[in-house]
Structure formats: C-alpha cells, structure tokens
C-alpha cells in the first residue's frame, strides 16, 4: 500500500524547506505526494488562506507535511489541525551537538493539548468596553491526551512525565485538566509530577534537565515550547507533529522567514526532522531513525546554512543529509 | 505626615525577609508600621488564609509590604491585589553585576495587567465532562494600564514599550487589549512595538536586550516575567509592585522557600528592593535610589547568602545594606 502524503509548502521559506524534506522522504520510502496550497499567497489570489480543497486533502490523506504561512498562519494552521482531528501537538525541543544553544543540555518533549483551552474559539464582544473569551477544558480531551502521553513515555522508556498547568488560579478548568491527566497516569502506573506553568518558565531556564516530557494545556504548550526553543538556539531546528486518531500533520515550528525567503539558504533541518516524525508515525521507525541520525550528523560537522553561521544552501544541506542516509 | 505601612510577613522566609526590609525602611524614613497576618499558618489556626482585618488594613494603608504565602498563595495575594485596587503589577527583571545569570545583559520591566484576563475568576462546571473559564478584557482596564505605561517610560526616558499578546488567536480579547494599549500610546506619542507572547518567549532567550519595558495581559505577564527571572538567575532577586490609584502593595516575586525557612539564611534582597519601590511610590525617590544602590553594591562585593554561593545570614546581608546606606 502506498501512503498518500499531502504536501503544503505555504509561504516564504516553506516553499524551499518542504521540497527538501520531500526529497528525503522520496529517498527512503514509496509515497504518493499530493501538493496543495495555503497561506498568504493563495489568500491574495483567491481570498481564502486555506482553500476547501486543501482542507479536504489534509482531512483524508494519511499524513500532511506543512511548511509555513505568513500573516495568515493562524487561519491556516488552526483549521489544518482540526482537519486531521489532532488532539496532541508533539514538540521536541532538543539541543544538537555542535549547534550554539543557551542551554545545550536541553532535551524536552512537549505534549500540548491541541483542541481546546483558549483555542476553542469562543469570543464575544459583550459591550463597547468588554470582550470575553470562553476557555474550554474537558475531561475527555484531557484523558485522551494523557493516554497518548502514557503510551509515549512507555514506548520511549521515560520515567514518567510532568504536567504543567495554572490550576492555582484556573482552579476549575486547569484543575479538571490536571486531575484528569494525573488520574489516567495513576491508573496506568505512569509517574507524574506537577509544575505551575510560571514556575516551569523559571525552572527550565535554571536547569532544563529537571524535565523530560511535559504535558500541558494548549496555550501553555504554545508558550513553554517556544521558551524551550529559545534555550536550544531558536525555532530553526524544531519539528512538530499534530497527531489525530487516523491521520497527522507535521510542520517545522519556525515561520516563513521573509528576510531570507527566495534566497535558497533556509535551513531545512526542522522540516526534515518533521518528516522523520511523519515516517515514524506511519510505522517506518527505522527510516525515521535514519533520517534523524543523518540530520544530526550533518548538524554536527556537515555544511551549514547562514542561520548556523555557515554559507551552505538549502540544497547543500539536503544533499548532505541524503548522502549520509546511504 | 507619617505614612502607614502595613507589613504582612506571611509564611516561611517571608517572616525573615520582611523584618529585614522593615529595618531598612526604618533607617531611611519615618513610617508607622502595622503588622498583619496572612498565609498557611493563619489559615491553619483560623480557617482563613486572608483574615478580613488584614484585607481592611491593606485596603486603607498608604502601602503594604508582603512577604510570601505557602499553599494559600493565590488565596492571599489575589485578594490583596484587589484590596489595593491594583491595576498594574510592575515587575523589573534585571541581572546584577556579580550574580550568576544565564543572560547577564537582561534588564527588563514587565507591566502586567493586574485585574482581569483569566484572573477575573469566572469559572463554571457546565457538565460532568466540561468546564469553562471566562477570560475578560476591557478597553478601560487596558487603557488605564497603557496610561501608566506611558508615564512609566516617559519618566524613565525609555524609547517606548513593547506589547506582548496573543491576538492572532485571541482576536477579540487580546485584539481589544492590543488596540487599546497601542491607541493610548499613539495619542501620547509613545512608541510601541508588538510581539506575540510565544515569540517573545523565544526571542527574550536569544537576546533580552531587544526588549525594555513589556506591557502584557495578566497571565502573559505572570509567565513571561517568571521566564525573565530564569534568565537573571532565579526568583530570588526579583521585586514587584502592585500599584493602585491610591495605594499599593509590594512583594518579592519569590515564595516561602520551605527548604531554608527558619534558618535565618534567606536572601532579603528582593524584599529590600521591593521596599525601595515602595519608597519611590510614596515619593521618596532619593531614599529609594539609595536603597537600590546599597543592595546592588552588597550584591556585587558584600556578604552573600547561600543561594548566591555565600554563607552569610539574612542579618549579615541586611546589616551590610544598612551600612552602605550611610
Ligand atoms: C500561528 C499560531 C496560531 C500557532 C499557535 O498558536 O498554535 C503557532 O504559534 C504555533 O505554535 O504553531
Ligand atoms: C500565586 C499566584 C496566584 C501568583 C499569580 O499567578 O499572579 C504568582 O504566580 C505571582 O506571579 O505573583
């Protein structure tokens, strides 16, 4: 069976790093690629940042690889997460040997709730002066995330996971989140520890090795994983996976980098590692591992794009990764 | 006129660092101190973490100096902020020469909205499965914060301020916040730049000198200022001020430090600098400046408590600060 992978380069450097990752996927597997549009450019043309056709493709493919979108990022990425019915956003933040990092010992994985919290999309203008947003937390979504987290740490032989939240203030909603997550973990015999999201922000700077896998509500995961990106040297190297029950969406955490877009010097590593996560998701564990190792090896002593202080092109780096795959 | 200062040591090291700061205040001014209870200990005794009497005292004094509370922190500090009708939480995060910091060049001030956002306190259990929290943002609170921010940067000759928010997702609420803040600044001729709160988390790690004064909604200010604390070496040195129209509440950002409480070795610097902010709030600018300078000088080459690698006591450090005040 040939899996169908939808490929959405999007805007800016998305158009450079996604083809790079596709060439890596082509080298290790036999997939059917379907390209689709999304982002600022297609919005300028058609009035829609995420054409219905793209949404439908993502909603039916086995997996989707997305690059980046500019101003329309939220209009593209949030519906795409819904298209694949993604309930968890997996965000590894790991420093690579040989790459400058504020905290080179950082090796974290965020498991971010991906459907609710402040992202549920209920906002109201109640008066000239006052607007509200309804933050939603359900036990069912929290439990689904927790089951995933338990599988995740068991598969990878972690000791357990941390739960980051703000239940001292959001007692009912984050209290529900925390209780549901901890209770699933208890039932499964998986260890957890709790940390307030503000305390996490301080403590992860002081010593990131205190944490491994961090389970958090949607916005907490957004901010804390970006903080971890700062500790490993920026968004440039961070992959992510939006996992649903039947399909998934993979994307580098970085944006469109308008300052360098079109110059052919974007660092493709984050997208290639996102492709490695895609391979693993589809069950190609060996291929995924091989791609990760190749990227890591190139980061350590191969050609470097300008963001890492080198003068190699996207193509040079991709070529080096392909070579080390053999 | 002798100003009345309510003093609430609270729990843990609050009982050690607050008296230290009081002795500094006594050395530079003529104040009437009234001591009041709050925290875990008084809750254990009376069932109330914040006795009505303490609330009333804070609500009528010129200023309040609070130490820390343990498990009951939220039950104490949130109502105390209300007691002084505080609309802004001022949180400087500055690295001190001679003190280990992940980013020694950090010198930031967070101006955190202090009345609404997710802290408005509206949560509901709508079903067995689902709870909601109503996040509240008003133009009036945002404008009041913005006016304060404009005064703040004008008084201190900053170029302008940054506005951190998540208006790409919370379009109505954070959109309202951003629009209100930017529009006040525009009217006042104060420059602003905008940054998404997640992007801020990455960027402040990579280069904290990109930012000076950062205006943010309540929870964003909570998390981002704690992140900045991580960059300057921990919560141990961070002061804060909760400013209202007629009175204010000052507190170190750190907690009760149960591991060292009672040993007389807590670092009093954050509380003494909070007292300096109190002096400045009451109009004693020279005295405030002198206290800051004395603390900074002791941090640079004076006795150090164990958290900074020394073996001095709270008293030794306080004594050194008092000496350098003369
Ligand atoms: C673009 C934006 C809507 C998105 C989010 O908030 O989830 C981004 O910050 C991310 O983390 O993928
Ligand atoms: C104790 C807690 C309620 C409080 C807050 O969230 O504001 C604390 O984290 C702070 O920043 O002062």
Q: Could you walk me through the main structural features you see in this protein, from its secondary elements to its overall organization?
A:
The structure is a homodimer of 326-residue chains. Chain A is α/β, with parallel strands linked by helices. Chain A folds into 2 domains: 180 residues, Isopropylmalate Dehydrogenase (3-Layer(aba) Sandwich), CATH 3.40.718; 131 residues, Isopropylmalate Dehydrogenase (3-Layer(aba) Sandwich), CATH 3.40.718.10. In chain A, the strands form 2 sheets. In chain A, strands 2-1-3-12-11-4-5-10-8-9 form a 10-stranded mixed beta sheet, with helices on both faces. In chain A, strands 6-7 form a two-stranded antiparallel ribbon. In chain A, helix 5 crosses helix 6 and helix 7 packs parallel to helix 8. The mean pLDDT of chain A is 97. Chains A and B meet through helix 4, strand 6, strand 7, helix 7 and helix 8 of A and helix 4, strand 6, strand 7, helix 7 and helix 8 of B. Bound molecules: 3-isopropylmalic acid (2 copies). One 3-isopropylmalic acid sits at the interface of chains B and A. Chains A, B: Keywords: Oxidoreductase. Chains A, B: It comes from Halopelagius inordinatus. Chains A, B: Belongs to the isocitrate and isopropylmalate dehydrogenases family.
Within the CATH hierarchy, at the fold level, what is the topology of the largest domain in chain A? Isopropylmalate Dehydrogenase
CATH architecture of the largest domain in chain A: 3-Layer(aba) Sandwich
- The ordered H/E elements of chain A are EHEHHEHEEEEHEHEHEHEEHHH
**Main beta-sheet annotation of chain A:** 10 strands, mixed
Order of strands side by side in the largest beta sheet of chain A?
A: 2-1-3-12-11-4-5-10-8-9
Low-confidence stretches of chain A: none
Content of β-strand of chain A: 15-25%
CATH class of the largest domain in chain A: Alpha Beta
Give the distinct bound molecules: 3-isopropylmalic acid
Largest interface between protein chains, with number of residues from each side = A-B, 52 and 52 residues
Number of helices of chain A: 11
